[in-house]
Amino acid sequence: MTLSLDYTFMLADAVSGGVAPDGFGGAQTAFAAAHAAVAARRASGELGFLDLPRNRELVTQVLEYTASVRGRYRDVVLLGIGGSALGPIALRNALRPPQWNALDDEARAGQPRLHMLDNVDPVTIAATLERVQLADTLFLVVSKSGGTAETMAQYLVVRARLEAAGLPLARHLVFVTDPQKGALRPIATAEGLPALDIPANIGGRFSVLSPVGMLPAALIGIDIEAMLAGAGDMVERCATDDLTRNPAGVFATLQWLADTTGGKHVQVLMPYADPLRDIAAWFVQLWAESLGKVRGDEHVGPTPVPALGATDQHAQVQLFMEGPRDKTITFLAVETPERDVTIPGAHADIPDLAYLGGHSLWELLNIERRATAGALATRGRPSMTIAMPQVDPWHLGALMMLFEIATAYAGALYGVNAFDQPGVELGKRYTYGMMGRPGFEAARAEFEQLPRSNPARILR
Ligand code: PA5
User: What Cα–Cα distance (Å) separates residue 11 from each residue in 24, 218, 253, 383?
Assistant: First the structure.
């Protein structure tokens, strides 16, 4: 059983605000060109993420390292940001029991807790470092570039703490980084620290199936071979340039058409399953950073928004139903939950409660999803549903690969490079300048010329 994509409610013959069926049919040519463009970039060696499912060398690196440290640590702390953290967070929260870090050693079957420091807020970092026993902790320093300010700052803090505690660095630090470039690789080589590779042709937000995601996943007992097999199956499914048979193609093409021909600039991803909540956060980075670009003298790209069913029925769905007609909603559904709970019957005399008895919580959650899709349809609001038979490593690998391939197609359809992020550079240069990094004096001077806050416009 594999993933299904139901796009009935994305088309205007079912939902008035949807994509015209003729327009979708006519997009076969554009999609075939996008498919060919992605294939050409892959053939030229640029799109390494597509080859990860078959990369035995990286899997071996991860499994050998994991085996060599098994049973040694009670805590693993990942230092990383953006694509170096969002994937690992999504994997832990999808594929390990809820509240993993709050479970005792027995409930975790001796596997370590996994903490993510994906920011430089000192409150979080100080609290996390106080909470763990350094002697029982492994720190994963994850950075493709090996130079990201936030991650390097975290690394320096952690390294100083390890040194102050007299702990051997090679036992408590492991780097995941580019095989050659960046500051981390030479440190690892000079100091004999373990370091796993992120292939040079894989960027941060496409790296979850590299050691970026696979190392933390394997350390907490997730079956990474199954994840990669599921991802590999999706690569195969998406090998066709027949749009109607290619799930990533359908997702990308419909979202592109909805945005560019239907004014649906906001694209919501709404899992109806708590374990998939952070898949939405991971997808938001993938879709936003890849597609929000300058093209000639135009600014293009849809705005992705995360939501969670049924929780957001009580927060965002009012907006989706009656706000601007500028959205598509993609529901993520799970066909078989890991467990279910029957709602007991009680209060037979109170109709507001009595009707619930005998149903299950899973039934309620799924009926709410279908009800929301139906309600949106009545208001001309298009949606589609990706259904996973169950939340397990195989299907999650397939789902993440579907979104990665869709992002590559969408980049080609929009006519932008989905694999760079030039828009984040200026803010980085200003930061370097203000933090006193040599070579960025001009950026500091430029920043100091920007408009200043006007005291008259500050309310205190
Ligand atoms: O997708 C990307 O390339 C970025 O979001 C990066 O993941 C993020 O900036 C962190 O970069 P790095 O892994 O080089 O530290």
Answer: 8, 41, 12, 9
* Probe residue for ligand 1, chosen from 49, 144, 151 as the CB with the greatest number of ligand atoms within 8 Å: 144
Q: Half-sphere exposure (CA, 13 Å, Cβ side) for 381?
A: 25
* Residue 433 near residue 63, CB atoms below 8 Å: no
For residue 330 and ligand 1, the question of a CB distance below 6 A is answered with no
Distance of CA 332 to the CA centre of its chain: 14
Is 246 touching ligand 1 by the criterion CB < 6 Å? no
Closest CA to ligand 1's atom 2: 204
**Residue identifier of the C-alpha nearest atom 8 of ligand 1:** 82
Q: Which domains are assigned to the chain?
A: 4-41+228-414 (3.40.50.10490), 48-224 (3.40.50.10490)
Question: Helix and strand tally (H, E) in the chain?
Answer: 18, 12
**Global pTM value:** 0.97
Write out the chain's pLDDT in tens, 460 residues. Answer: 899 999 999 999 999 999 999 999 999 999 999 999 999 999 999 999 999 999 999 999 999 999 999 999 999 999 999 999 999 999 999 999 999 999 999 999 999 999 999 999 999 999 999 999 999 999 999 999 999 999 999 999 999 999 999 999 999 999 999 999 999 999 999 999 999 999 999 999 999 999 999 999 999 999 999 999 999 999 999 999 999 999 999 999 999 999 999 999 999 999 999 999 999 999 999 999 999 999 999 999 999 999 999 999 999 999 999 999 999 999 999 999 999 999 999 999 999 999 999 999 999 999 999 999 999 999 999 999 999 999 999 999 999 999 999 999 999 999 999 999 999 999 999 999 999 999 999 999 999 999 999 999 999 9
| Residues 166, 188: Cα–Cα separation, whole Å | 19
